[in-house]
Amino acid sequence: MPEQPHIAVVGVTGAVGQEMLACLEARNFPTGQLKALASARSAGKTVRFCGGDVTVEELTADAFAGVDIALFSAGGGISKKFAPAAAAAGAVVIDNSSVFRMDDAVPLVIPEINPEAAATHSGIIANPNCTTIVTLMGLDPLHREWGCQRVIASSYQAVSGSGAAGIAELETQIEAITAGQPVEKNVYPHQIAFNVIPQVDTFLDNGYTKEEMKMENEGRKILSAPDFKASVTCVRVPVYRSHSVAVTAQFESAPDVAKARELIAAAPGVQICDDPAAGLYPTPLDTTEKDDCLVGRIRKDIVLENALSFWVVGDQVRKGAALNAVQIAELVLSFKR
User: Is 50 a residue of the active site?
Assistant: First the structure.
């Protein structure tokens, strides 16, 4: 791996692809060359990077010659088709889709939690689900101290989790309602403006959605905790950006609220925002376009033994996707030096 690797961003014109460029630039990632890849309809457009324009090229199986690190954020179908080709060409793929996450041969990495996993890969490293990342950023410091056994959680997920179409649908519906016009629904099964929808992703036979099961399945792999259990309800809310999660976590030993605050405050990538008497607790606007997740409302649970409840918020486009991927790229580069 050269000191200034050749980077490809797949899905570069999308919201996460654009955020990946912003994170690479903001963190002064030592990019030798940048290849901007997208669908044929975006080929020929330009994207801004480090003060210059980069022309978007069409994504093909032959597009990865000379690429050292390929950041993928173009959907599962694209990753399944092109990520193996990128890896075969010699690139380390960091994939933001769900396609490879539960593959035993593919590391699933949150750099603040399990960076060592990124050292042993076969060409592909998976980026976890955004809600899983945000939740585990708050949970992991507590898990390390007391051993988390199970989680009951509810997510409040922004419409940008559905991409630009989700944002556009919320905006269009708000405009229609305020103008007294009929509301159109395309992205979501119900009106999202001034509403909440208790469905993110498709339902499974057990009554949970795919999104809800990711917390348990991915959490087990990231935390190296095969007995970890999670019961999650994922809810779409009319917020533009940043996911929030209400978490009740039960531990092997009795936790302490003051100690929990100390542990989270000392952990990388997460901050305490917890003084309810002064109206201080995290909101989505507090984390939007910010790197760190925020945790507040920490309290002893009054139903379960050895349990804490807390509220964690993070920008799911940034830490939940683009930033986490760039941090993995930084790990890859450090391992190769």
Answer: no
The predicted model scores a pTM of 0.96
SS3 content of the chain, % helix, strand, coil (to 5): 35, 25, 40
Of the residues 6, 121, 143, 243, only one is catalytic, namely: 243
Q: Which amino acid is at 8?
A: A
The domains of the chain, with CATH numbers, are 6-128+321-336 (3.40.50.720), 132-316 (3.30.360.10)
**What mean pLDDT value characterizes the chain?**
97
Burial environment of residue 79 by CB neighbours within 10 A (0 to 12, 13 to 18, 19 or more): buried
Mean pLDDT of the 306-321 span: 98
Catalytic residue among 23, 130, 234, 273: 130
Q: What is the pLDDT of residues 89-99, one digit of tens each?
A: 999 999 999 99
Beta strands in 143-290, from DSSP E residues, in sequence order: 148-157, 229-236, 243-251, 270-272
Whether the pLDDT of residue 337 is over 80: the answer is no
**CA distance linking residue 166 with residue 116, whole number of Å:** 35
Active site residue 243: yes
The beta strands (E) that lie in 237-282 are given as 243-251, 270-272
